[in-house]
Write a structure and sequence with these properties.
With about 260 residues, the protein is an alpha+beta fold. An eight-stranded mixed barrel has the order 1-2-3-4-7-8-6-5. Strand 5 and strand 6 form a beta hairpin. The protein starts with a helix and ends with a strand.
């Protein structure tokens, strides 16, 4: 009887190891699918904005050619929209995986589990709240992205819980068909996905500045940047696991370049 029990236990252990190995392989395969898609996406032709002739350098956002020294990545949104009609922008944080198109659908569910081409995938896309104007002109703008275990999508935003990371990366680049912007970060806080959801509108300037004071007081990093009543903000929203339905929200002022 003891031998039978030991064989059963051994069989269960072997089965558990096999199942675990299959799950790991499956996870790696799924992650590689999204990585391959976004790697190809980032290779879409761009060029230094200063060079408008046929000899312009072809590179991807975030890659700087040797010349000219003053260089601004150029994203060809006309070409991208032929393939991905819902693209509204591009977000770039140098030296991190954040180098993605920003999508927008008629709701906030579509791109939660879909790549920019509409195919189903759990990492989804970086996407603009459906209630925001696609031209990034609202007072408060919300952009969402998953927090993946591999650090892709908005996983790198967790770095802002470290003051040294913020000090090294206080600005994120946003490119849109209407213009290019800097997102000057000034606060990052943990909030509940429902009860503390960032507001889209403010009735008065005082309400706006009160909200700014609120999130700065509970920020996970310290910033000396002063926000004014005339500023507009972008909230970068991703999951965190401090508590159930927790979100990490990194907030910055959007300024046109």
């Amino acid at each position: 009887m003891k031998k039978v029990i030991l064989k059963i236990i051994l069989g269960v252990c072997v089965l558990a190891v096999v199942v675990f190995a299959v799950l790991i392989v499956r996870e790696l395969y799924i992650d590689s699918q999204s990585r391959s898609f976004y790697d190809e996406f980032a290779n879409v032709e761009t060029r230094p904005r200063e060079q408008e002739d046929s000899t312009a350098v072809s590179t991807s956002p975030g890659t700087t050619p040797d010349e000219p020294e003053e260089w601004m990545p150029y994203v060809d949104f006309d070409a991208l929209r032929e393939l991905y009609p819902e693209i509204v922008g591009w977000i770039l944080l140098d030296d991190t995986p954040i180098n993605y198109p920003i999508m927008q659908a008629a709701d906030n569910d579509f791109f939660l589990r879909r790549l920019p081409d509409g195919s189903s995938h759990r990492v989804g896309s970086i996407f603009l709240d459906y209630r925001n104007e696609s031209g990034f002109s609202d007072k408060s703008i919300l952009i969402y992205g998953h927090h993946t275990r591999t650090g892709e999508m908005f996983g790198a935003l967790t770095g802002y819980r470290n003051q040294e990371f913020y000090d090294a990366n206080p600005v994120i680049d946003i490119f849109t068909p209407e213009g290019d912007f800097e997102l000057i970060l000034f606060a990052g806080h943990v909030a509940h996905s429902v009860h503390d959801h960032p507001p889209l509108e403010f009735e008065t300037d005082e309400d706006f500045l009160d909200y700014i004071d609120l999130i700065k007081n509970k920020s996970v990093f310290t910033s000396n940047f002063e926000v004014t009543a005339s500023d507009r903000i972008i909230n970068l929203v991703t999951c965190t696991y401090d508590f159930n339905d927790a979100r990490l929200i990194i907030v910055g002022v959007i300024r046109e370049v």
